[in-house]
Amino acid sequence: EVQLVESGGGLVQPGGSLRLSCAASGFTFSNYGMNWVRQAPGKGLEWVSHITTSSSAIYYADSVRGRFTISRDNANNSLYLQMNSLRDEDTAIYYCASSSWYYFDDWGQGTLVTVSS
Amino acid sequence: SYVLTQTPSVSVAPGQTARVACGGNNIGGKSVHWYQQKPGQAPVLVVYDDSDRPSGIPERFSGSNSGNTATLTIIRVEAGDEADYYCQVWESSSDQWVFGGGTKLTVL
After folding, report:
1. Distance (Å) from the C-alpha of residue B47 to the closest C-alpha of chain A?
2. Contact by Cβ (8 Å): B100, B87
3. Does any CB of chain A come closer than 8 Å to the CB of residue B101?
């Protein structure tokens, strides 16, 4: 059974930093591209970032480019998102999602990030 | 950037057919994927590559895509189908994954 478990969310002040983690199991992690997708309270889904299987290519949404950094550790089946210079509008549930092609096969349950003073 | 437009809400009686539309410029030339999200839960992929279903998704769910509109169709709608539905494409010109704004399906 595929499992994606996010952690690291919490309350942070504007301008602060946070690092999210996603632990994967139940599938061959190194064979899948990985993503972060977020959802602000009461709003729709927003793709945040994608990293290819070997980390050879990385993509970001315009709203986070230059502030967020995605990375992965295939040896430990883990995905990360380093979030710096956080803003109020970054408040959201952050989901980790796998992708075999250009869609999101499986999703974690998400971790809540709240940016507030 | 590429924009996907969805009607905010659709209502249907149990047993009837629901159609959820997703509009985009020449979307028929792209592969469209659909997700179902129930309250308090993570999204679930229900249709990929316009019309394929992942294992475990009922045959009642189907998709089509042509011209400027992609459509998710749910036949014999059940109370358990009540959820938000999102369409999604990959925009190759900018390497961006794009979601529609979502459609709330209400089962009357």
Report:
1. 10
2. yes
3. yes
